[in-house]
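User: Okay, second chain of the day. Same drill as before: sequence in, structure tokens out.
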Amino acid sequence: MSDILATKLSAIETLRFQGEANLMAHAYGNRKKMEQGVSDFQGILLSQCIQKMQETFASPGEVSDPAGESFAGMGAQALGAALARNDALGIRKMLLHGLEAAQPAESKPSEPALT
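Assistant: Same drill. Structure tokens below.
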């Protein structure tokens, strides 16, 4: 249970960090950086979920292999990043809209929003 809580807290911290960084980038009219931050956040979130799911399928009493765990972690990161590039969670528009709404009107970009 503590692993799940730690994962959720880590995801929240990541979201807060990415949100703050993206708001600053967006305030300077750099929408591409904001979009990249949203994609990165989705990738991190998906990677953590995939890693936790992999841990639940481990056999009890199975000997831990550090090299195997590292390889599985890299695979989870690659899969999470690939899914994020394709907006697998479908939260890209929602996050971008929230970030745009949180910034002052004078710093809003002239580029059209993603659809």
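The chain has a mean pLDDT of 75.

User: Thanks, on to the next one.
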